[in-house]
Amino acid sequence: MTSHPVNALRPGDRGPAVAAVCHRLMLTGDLPASFPLDDRRDVAYDATVEQAVRAFQQRRGLIVDGVVGRATFAVLDGAQWRLGDRVLRYTSGPALEGDDVGVLQRRLVQLGFSVGKVDGILGPETDAAIRTFQSAVGLAGDGVVGPGTIGAFEALRRSVGGGSATALREREQLRRSGPSLAGRTIVLDPGHGGGDPGVIGPDGLTEASVALGIAARVEARLSAHGVDVVFTHTAHTPGGSEDERAAFANDAGADLLITLHSDHSMQTSGHGVATFFYGHPDHGGWSTIGERFADLMLREVVARTGLTDCRSHARTWTLLRRTRMPAVRLDFGYLTHPGDCALLARPGILDGLAEGIVVALQRMYLGDADLGRTGMLRLSDLRRHLEAMSAGSSPPG
Fold first, then answer.
1. Nearest CA to 275 among 180, 356, 217?
2. pLDDT digits (tens, 9 = 90+) for 117-163
3. pTM of the model as a whole
4. Average pLDDT over every residue of 30-49
5. Is there a contact between 35 and 26 (Cβ–Cβ < 8 Å)?
6. Do the beta carbons of residue 8 and residue 76 sit within 8 Å?
7. φ, ψ for residue 284 (rounded to 5)?
8. Core-most of 157, 179, 199, 321, by most CB within 10 Å?
9. What is the DSSP string of 148-197?
């Protein structure tokens, strides 16, 4: 795996690192083949390069800021690979990742082999699936994807919609887990903190304080229902990078991760609430459970707070991609917008946000038994509904 640039690259930079980015943008088709790279020591990050970076970020579900940081470079570097360009194998060090790994995972899923999440990262679950596939077709189950294994894939490919088997498997796992929240582990990741305030509103309200306030309210409600709630950090300790927080959630064996943030805009007109889940159309990777929860949470929050509905979106952000469990991000409003900021300063609105999150979570686990009255249900209603279900009777009207 290619090493990442030490510092983020942005307009005005120049040099070999910019040339390396431009070379990859040419391979992805975002820069024309005629782009001048004659002197790789003095390539400028100009407006053309910035536009190409933004186009790539938009297409790949990244944050569109025109800056090549660690996350953008990792996806850009991986986009240069096609299945068969290199030998793939699982290693105990930094995992191989790229478009070729995503295609490999999609083909394994199409043939009925579980890889976990189709995320373009060659981890232990993908390695196990490779070895099982190799043994099933009479190859040495060594986990090395070279010409022989790729040839076996080509011989067995079926016309199955990419990722559909994963979606069915996710739904079945959710159904079998039952409707109760008790005994589940939920990781809450309130944005920023540990000395980083995040976005600061016009009256001094900070993203970190609002996110932690919502998270504390969610934790209180979930704990009352027997849920084991784990925070990635406290008000005084940093949570680390997205990679580190994803690893923390994976190690905790969480059923779901919820990350909480404010949005911001250079202009004060941007406002509203949005949710995000993992989805990568190019790989066929799509978290159906994440999408379901993101949609439910958005609708419940909007109904309780009056914040503008900015819809639910698929993204490939690091925290959403690297968690083994479904992960959903809630952007609970724009602190740069006077109206949103005034709402988020009210404890009642924070209570509404927390209630919406928890009700959406319970509705997701109810599945087909979901009562479906968006914005009308309270946790007490859901508790009575669960009690009625366990007693084998109809829920009270």
1. 356
2. 889 999 999 999 999 999 998 999 999 999 999 988 887 754 444 44
3. 0.78
4. 89
5. yes
6. no
7. 75, 10
8. 321
9. HHHHHHHHH-----TTHHHHHHHHHHHHHH-S--TT-EEEEEESSBTTB-
